[in-house]
Structure formats: structure tokens, C-alpha cells
Amino acid sequence: MNVYQRCVLWSASNSYLRAIILRQDVCRHSVVYKKCRPTLKFQTISRRFQVTAAPSPTEQLTGKSHRAVGRWLLACSGMAFGSIVLGGVTRLTKSGLSMVHWHPFAEFPPSGQHQWEQEFLKYQEYPEYKASDREMTLAEFKRIWYIEYIHRMWGRTIGAVFYTGAAWFWWHGCLSRRAKVHVSLLAVGLAFQGFLGWFMVKSGLQDQPHVSQYRLAAHLGTALAWYSLAFWSGLSHLAARPGPTTALLSAAMHKGVHGVLGLVFVTAMSGAIVAGLRAGLVYNSFPKMADRWVPSDIMALEPKLSNFTENPTTAQFDHRILGESVVVVVTGLWLWGRKQPLPPRAKKALHCLLATAWLQATLGVSTLLTYVPVSLASSHQAGAVTLLSVALWLAHELKLLRRIPK
């Protein structure tokens, strides 16, 4: 009996699927026409033929490439995490102004005693050394110089890994349209971050013996934004979609998580102002500031608005309030989220958010009470990035759930 067999052929010379109808006698032992590629599987259902095309190698490669892009983005975000922590160590050890010149590529350590002495003499010409209340030895200078050098070279390593990976994945067509937008933003942001780093250092090589707190906050804010985008995009490539569910999640829960994200970011920015003003070295007591809840010199400067970014007392007071607000809001979100129909991964992220918030608050208080030691202060900065990461993770887990009005 003659029937019309319908099959779909992949055409290598075209970018679309071309339908071809082949007329052929089909029986149980018939041979499928050899030009019908890829392999066709026939299933007889109610005397009809159902044709299914086997998955093409291109489709399999796309899935592998998608995961590879995700791993690369998460690796870049992990390197950025390390750079943020290393930047904190550089600031805490007063190493950031030890290298008084900048070049995008040709920066190498001095090769001999004479070159080291010349480098040390250059550093002595700038305000930070002149404002120091003690003599610095050449060995001490080498120590802070290498800390700054490692920080700069780590940033260049991030650039090499990111730009090389971006070029490779883009050239081989492994990036979706959205991924191309993200990668383009990250490429521009990384170059801008390098410029901001030197722009910040330059502010401490002029009239004042320390970097501008405004430029420090801009440098940290750009780093956190870059890290967040790379981390989020990496999760989007790797995280498995949740299984089918009929549970509905309140839209207010989504808003609450995004509110926590914003609050954590603002708190980190206030921490940059505290670091730039060295406000962690005033009022080293908790919960009160000395013997008062609100210190008397909180609005000592004129105009009044300048106190928020130039008065160390006000900067520390604001950072305390913001940090305590993060703990309160996260705790409230956790109590509320426990009653929501969250998937297992989202519940785990919610629990981690609560634990990280309390750990970060503990690190902050400990850093204050012990007069900002390098180990605790750098751990506190790492805790801020960790808290931001967990909040991003939770927001990412919730983004695919169906929402209902509160």
C-alpha cells in the first residue's frame, strides 16, 4: 500500500530546517531512503508513522558550551572575590600607595639592591611617607610594595582569564544573545575598574597622605557590581531549573529578597566610607559609642550633609545602623520565608542567608572592639561579599517561581 512518508532533513548548507515529502512504499522490512538524515525512528501507532529526529551533535555541543560558559563566569567571579579581599588587605596594611607609578603592562619588581633603593626614594617623596611618625626600613617597604604588586597582578590575571575566555566563546558561537550583553558589560566594566584603581591611588599621591574615600567607595562599588553580574550570569548558565510545581510564591517575597540585596550593597558602600576615613578607630565600643547611644559630635561639620561622608563619627554611626538593619531584615525575611512554599535549594539559600548575616555582624563588632586588626578586618570584608553572594543566590532561586499578589 502506498503512503506518504513525512520526514525532516537537516540541510548543512542552510540555517533552517527544510521539509521534504518522500513518496515510497513502506513495509515492515523496507529500508529508509539514505538521504533522510539524521536517522529516523518509526513507530506504528494506529497504522500511522511517527517520525522523530535524533538529537544533532550541534544541540549536544550547545548544552556543553552553556555549562562551560557558566563555569568560566563563576571562575571569573571567584577571582574577583579574591581581588576584593586582597584589596582590603592592601588598604589595611597601607600598601596601596607604595607603587607611585602605574603602567598597564610593564610593571616588574626591582631586580637589585640599587633599584630597590631608588624605588624607596620615590616613595619617600610622597605625602604618606612624610606623614608617617616613624622611620621605615627598606625591608618594610619591600613588604608593602609586594602586597600592592600582587594586588595589581591579580587584577591583570583576571583580565587575561576574562578577555581570553570571552574571545574564545564569542568566536565559537557559544554565547546566547543575553550572554553577549552580559559579557560586553563585564568587558567594559573590567577595563573601567582598572582605571578606577589607579584614579583612586592617584588621589593619595597628591596633597593628602591617604586615598579619597569617594574614590575608594567607587572602586569597591564597581568591583561588587562586576562580581555580582558575573556571579549571577554564571548561576544562570549552570543552575538547573526547578521541577514542575503548582506552588505559588508571594510577590512580596521577591521584593523582600531584592530589598535585602540593595541593603547589603548600601551597607558595603558605607563600609568603604568608614575605611577611607579610618572611622573604625574611633568609638571602639559596642553597643554604645563611648557612653552615649548617639555621640555628641555626629553633626560637627558644616555643611551638615558633609558629615555623612567626611565625619568619621557619623560614618561609623551610619555603618552601625545599616549593619544592624541588615540583621533585623534578614531575620524577619527568614521567619517569613519559612512559611512559604519554597523549593529545597531556595530553603537552603534562605538558611545560609540568615547564618551569613549573623556571622558578618559578629565579625564587624569583633573588628571594632579589637581596633581593626588586619585579619579580622579582611575577614569582615570577605563576609560582606559572601553575604551579597548568598543574597544573589536566593534571588536567583526565586526568579523562576510563579508569583501571586500578596
Describe the structure.
By secondary structure, the chain is mainly alpha-helical. It folds into two domains: 61-229, no CATH class; 239-405, no CATH class. The chain has eleven helices and six strands. The protein has helices spanning 57-92, 113-124, 127-130, 138-171, 177-203, 213-238, 251-277, 307-310, 312-337, 344-369, 374-398, and strands at 2-10, 17-25, 40-45, 48-53, 249-250, 403-404. It has a two-stranded antiparallel sheet. A two-stranded antiparallel ribbon has the order 3-4. A two-stranded parallel sheet has the order 5-6. The chain starts with a strand and ends with a strand. Mean pLDDT is 83; it is low at 1-61.
Chart the SSEs and their pairings.
Elements: E1 2-10, E2 17-25, E3 40-45, E4 48-53, H1 57-92, H2 113-124, H3 127-130, H4 138-171, H5 177-203, H6 213-238, E5 249-250, H7 251-277, H8 307-310, H9 312-337, H10 344-369, H11 374-398, E6 403-404
Parallel strand pairs: 5-6
Antiparallel strand pairs: 1-2, 3-4
Helix pairs in contact: 1-4, 1-6, 1-11, 4-5, 5-6, 6-7, 6-11, 7-9, 7-11, 9-10, 10-11
Membrane topology: Multi-pass membrane protein
GO biological process, one term: heme A biosynthetic process
Subcellular location: Membrane
